[in-house]
Amino acid sequence: MERYQIVFAPNLPAFYEASATLRGLLAEKGLAAKPRSDVELAFEEVAANILKHGSPVHDIDVQISFQADHVILTFEDDGLPFNPLLHRDPDVPESLDEAQIGGLGVMIVKQVASRVEYSRTPQQHNRLTLEISV
């Protein structure tokens, strides 16, 4: 198992840099297009939600583990508590005319991940672990 870490400040420029770092790492690992897209999507959705809704004060820490048949992403932040497993999935619109922008990220992440775990650490941090099949 290979492990990597991406740590970034809770702001947009650092988020963009972290996303670029992840894309470079995935390219280096030679992941196929579908799992690579799933990992990128999950990373960007979770990290963006942490920034937008969590109001973290300190750096966001993302651990990335590459295993034979999956990638594990573990996010830790000191933002507001949020357990995505308790988040009710929104109703999916029947047409594009009824669709609204936003609000589907958590549902999409739960769909691309084969495993989702959440805990609040003793340090009062959010810890979210996603397993994505490759």
Brief sketch in words of this structure:
With 134 residues, the protein is an alpha+beta fold. 36% of the residues lie in helices and 27% in strands.
What does this structure look like?
This protein has about 130 residues and is an alpha+beta fold. It has one domain: Histidine kinase-like ATPase, C-terminal domain (Heat Shock Protein 90). About 35% of the residues lie in helices and about 25% in strands. A 5-stranded antiparallel sheet has the order 1-2-3-5-4, covered by helices on one side. A hairpin with a 3-residue loop joins strand 2 and strand 3. Helix 1 packs antiparallel against helix 2 and helix 2 runs antiparallel to helix 3. The longest helix has 22 residues. The radius of gyration is 15 Å and the shape is globular.
Query: What top-tier CATH class fits best?
Result: Alpha Beta
CATH domain topology: Heat Shock Protein 90
Low-pLDDT runs: none
Backbone shape: globular
Strand coverage percent: 25-35%
How is the secondary structure organized here?
Blueprint: E1 2-8, H1 12-29, H2 33-54, E2 60-66, E3 70-77, H3 105-112, E4 115-120, E5 126-133
Antiparallel strand pairs: 1-2, 2-3, 3-5, 4-5
Helix pairs in contact: 1-2, 2-3
List keywords for this structure.
5-stranded antiparallel sheet, 134 residues, alpha+beta, Heat Shock Protein 90
